[in-house]
Structures are given as structure tokens and as C-alpha cells.
Design a protein that fits this description.
Helix content: 40-55%
Low-confidence stretches: 1-24
Mean pLDDT: 83
Number of helices: 7
Strand content: 5-15%
Shape: globular
Order of helices and strands: EEHHHHHHH
Structural class: mainly alpha
Length: about 150
């Protein structure tokens, strides 16, 4: 019934679970409603991670004007496929953190903490994804998700 149906599948090559968004054909208004719901969730998560507006703009690859417009009314958002995929990765990162941590301080504080594991090299995961590079979102998700299996 939504433009995107969330489904969990097993990536057999990497032996891990991922949440992916699968497109289904619907009218434009329904598409925007689903995208707005994802955007609202991501704004709430990024707020909990203490992101600045500038960081949010870089992470989501939206302009300053679009940021304030979408914050005020996410239902007016017209998102590209790249932006929808960014939202998906952010939701996946949050999902992995929820599986790792029980308390809100760790759940929401982890992203801002310096991380001395090889990929992060003393930077926080938030610093890495704030670069705005799509690969940074992917690699950050991959490294956080690996924590669930004790890979670090």
C-alpha cells in the first residue's frame, strides 16, 4: 500500500540481515507520503544524534532551503533516489544500534563518540557520514552492523 515496502532479507554473500526499501507502483501522492514518513523518522534520529543543520544537509544531500522546508513540512519533500537510499542507510544504522544497545545514552550517543577502529581512525561515525559521501554511509553502516557479530 506504500510506495516502499520494507522487507528484511538475508544477504547470503555477506551473511547478514539488511533492511531494504522495495519500490512498488503507486500514485505520486502516496509516494510522497511514504517518503515523508521516512524523512520524519530520519530527522528525529539525526536530532537524537545531536546533528547540526549543516550536518543533516550534507548527510541527506539537501540544500539549506530544502532542509528548513522539509523540516517544517516533510510531506512537501520531493526526494531523489539517492536521497531515499541515504534515508534507508540511516534507518539501517539506527536499527543496528538498537540491536546493539539497550540504553538511550549508548543508542543515541554512539554516533558522536570518537572511534579508534581502523575505518574511523579516531573520528566519530557522525564525522564520517557528515562528509556527505554516499560511500561513507555505506561503510559506516557496514562497520556498525558488523559489531552485532563481534567482528571488531
Amino acid at each position: 500500500m506504500d510506495i516502499f515496502a520494507l522487507m528484511v532479507y538475508i544477504d547470503t554473500n555477506l551473511a547478514r540481515y539488511e533492511v531494504v526499501m522495495q519500490a512498488v507502483q503507486l500514485d505520486r501522492q502516496s509516494q510522497r507520503q511514504v517518503a515523508a514518513t521516512g524523512l520524519k523518522a530520519v530527522f528525529a534520529i539525526l536530532d537524537k544524534w545531536q546533528c547540526s543543520p549543516e550536518q543533516v544537509q550534507r548527510i541527506l544531500q539537501i540544500s539549506k532551503a530544502a532542509y528548513y522546508k522539509y523540516r517544517n513540512d516533510p510531506y512537501c519533500a520531493s526526494l531523489t533516489q539517492d536521497q531515499i537510499e541515504r534515508i534507508s542507510y540511516l534507518l539501517n544504522i539506527h536499527s543496528s544500534l538498537r540491536l546493539l544497545f539497550d540504553n538511550p545514552q549508548n543508542l543515541y550517543g554512539f554516533m558522536a563518540l570518537p572511534n579508534h577502529n581502523p575505518y574511523f581512525n579516531g573520528n566519530s561515525p557522525l564525522d564520517i557520514i557528515s562528509s556527505g559521501q554516499f560511500a561513507a554511509l555505506y561503510e559506516t553502516f557496514k562497520h556498525i552492523d558488523a559489531l552485532r557479530g563481534g567482528m571488531w
